[in-house]
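We were asked to recover a plausible sequence for a given structure. The inputs and outputs are reproduced exactly as logged, with field labels preserved.

PROBLEM: sequence recovery
POSITIONS: 116
GIVEN STRUCTURE:
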């Protein structure tokens, strides 16, 4: 098995010179510190979307993510798009969010040109 699940732990530091080679963490119950060797990390900065826009009734899923058309980024409100990790689309990584943002921008451009 190549996956080890470590519970009740807090990451302290990522180690390595030019490349990631390890992670130091602490058990939050025992305060024991350990190091594990690894070749990469995915950092998730929270998993609760900040989608409570005042005065805008965006349609959201059960977890609070804004529901968008996956091809355009359009929301349920005309003239409002969303992109990135606030949306209900899968894979909350920055490179995917950037691609979603570019797709939304191109659709916003088309929308604005059509309104001339």
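RECOVERED SEQUENCE:
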């Amino acid at each position: 098995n190549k996956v080890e699940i470590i519970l009740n732990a807090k990451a302290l530091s990522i180690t390595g010179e030019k490349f990631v080679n390890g992670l130091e963490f602490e058990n939050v119950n025992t305060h024991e510190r350990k190091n594990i060797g690894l070749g990469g990390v995915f950092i998730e900065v929270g998993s609760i979307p900040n989608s409570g826009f005042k005065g805008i009734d965006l349609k959201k899923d059960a977890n609070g993510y804004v529901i968008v058309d996956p091809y355009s980024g359009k929301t349920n409100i005309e003239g409002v798009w969303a992109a990135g990790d606030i949306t209900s689309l899968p894979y909350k990584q920055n490179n995917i969010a950037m691609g979603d943002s570019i797709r939304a921008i191109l659709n916003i451009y088309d929308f604005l040109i059509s309104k001339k």
